């Protein structure tokens, strides 16, 4: 029978066969869901939606009959049951073989951050025996949420419910699943999301990443209080941190006040004012420190339902009283009522308060777990949806940027209307190599699905963390998402930070989020004993960056890596709208090893390398045209993104710099020269140019060559 908040024991078999499926993009949209549905047929795109929920007394479970497959990724949080919907930031790529039970075997050692998989998945990606790929994406509607679940005997079930005390209303449409099979894994994932977000068969408020406006502050370098100070913040601490940042020489442009500032009692919020003991003068001594050429923007952290446990019954916000209801699970707690008007009133009040206090953006946390707070009310799925939509609307209307944290569940993702970023991993933990390996893996892998609708937020990091600081800075540069420091400003490491941004703090960003290469999507990276883990980001001028990682917790010998021309073709995988994979240019490619600051032509045989122990290697692939290849500024990780090729001819190339600095070029014939730069050879027909003293800021430089 159709589930409320209980587990179903029966199963209804479903098969999608050619020409017979429920509510699909192609086929018979008015046909009822047949007794059996098999996914992975020749149909090009599928969306399964029930016109109404299953009748009372019948099962809502359906078994998905999969085609034969070789490997799969079960994208799920850890095994605590509530994590499937309250996943926080904990989604992990559980890689299995051709048996759905294979991921539940005990690992040695136990994974350092997410020890055991949840049986319920946010999405599942399969490599099929026919060489194709299949992505399954459960959906959420106005009054329901669906999920995938692997049973104890290895079956894959599709189910849905309200997660509340009442069944899904009998007149409600129930979106169940979108899925897509393709010859390439990126299209399989992207199309499953595109169908879910753009179909006219059911209402969803979410949108694809390219349809959203990226918040201006997040295009610059930031800093957050959390990992350095945790909840131990007050007026003196924050003013002191601002002083240190101003004197550091590091161009931090935004300042995020995380948890620890609240006027609360035991995790229940009393008001949206700051804690009067910690901040006796309110926010004015902090926000008054904003200035145009320094920290320009300030943000504030708030729990999604106001705080970790919601609003206190003895709160000091009488304006909100008509819109709150008792939390059935917390004696002292209140929640926004389960109706859209109450959600709108609650979040408009919250966003108006932080705007009036002088903040420019907010970070909302504990989003996915907030669904659980409504378990004792009639419909938790609809309540969560209403709250997500109301916060999105309030931030949009008031011009307040929104950073989503702990928001990895289906309801949140499919209703992220305007917000452009979401955390991809658990919190960074300073000076903790094992958990950092897991955090990096989760950060880069989760882009393949989350990155369809949002830019990935890889969390803050300490530039002074000697074990992982440099590797994490490369990872964050490749992401295209926000980059923010967390170490004591007195400990900032300029060598790590300055590679990420210009002198004004503007980040050097890729054209789309970095994503694992196909060979790595199905890699069990923490237990890999042979191959490195590789990710790729597209850059300006049809260049790209490839980062290679050794994240293994078991490998005793070095891992093997190889860069080949075919890698280059996948650089466009996350570009929206997708216009096809890149082609290797007729004259070929060069590869530049950023760590070694050396380059070579990339032949069909590829370039081999090894990685002994944890680390990250960065390679830049640039197209050769008329015997030129432009690497860009070698002092920045994403060097090709620092220049625009304005004109290229056999004897000259004209480059536009966002900020003039050194440049590396490949010249297959002749030595480059310019009256504005001094060039020297660095080997293999690569040359480094140093600008003349006094050249700075934006500008255009023409470089010629002789002896051609």
Index terms:
708 residues; carbohydrate metabolism; 13 helices; single chain; 6-stranded antiparallel β-sheet; globular; alpha+beta
Short note summarizing the structure:
Helix 5 (340-356) packs parallel to helix 6. The chain is of the alpha+beta class. The chain has 13 helices and 40 strands.
Topology:
Blueprint: E1 12-14, E2 46-50, E3 62-64, E4 69-76, E5 92-96, E6 120-121, E7 123-128, E8 133-138, E9 145-150, E10 156-161, E11 174-182, H1 185-198, E12 222-224, H2 226-229, H3 235-246, E13 254-257, E14 262-265, E15 268-274, H4 284-287, E16 297-303, E17 311-312, E18 324-326, E19 333-336, H5 340-356, E20 361-365, H6 380-398, E21 401-404, H7 410-414, E22 421-423, H8 433-445, H9 447-450, E23 455-457, H10 469-479, E24 484-485, H11 494-497, E25 515-516, H12 518-521, E26 533-538, E27 544-550, E28 559-563, H13 565-569, E29 589-593, E30 598-602, E31 607-611, E32 615-623, E33 628-632, E34 643-649, E35 652-657, E36 663-667, E37 671-673, E38 677-683, E39 686-691, E40 699-706
Parallel strand pairs: 1-3, 12-13, 12-24, 13-16, 16-20, 20-21, 21-22, 22-23
Antiparallel strand pairs: 2-11, 3-10, 4-5, 4-7, 6-9, 7-8, 8-11, 9-10, 14-15, 17-19, 18-19, 25-26, 26-27, 27-32, 28-31, 29-30, 29-32, 33-36, 34-35, 35-40, 36-39, 37-40, 38-39
Helix pairs in contact: 5-6
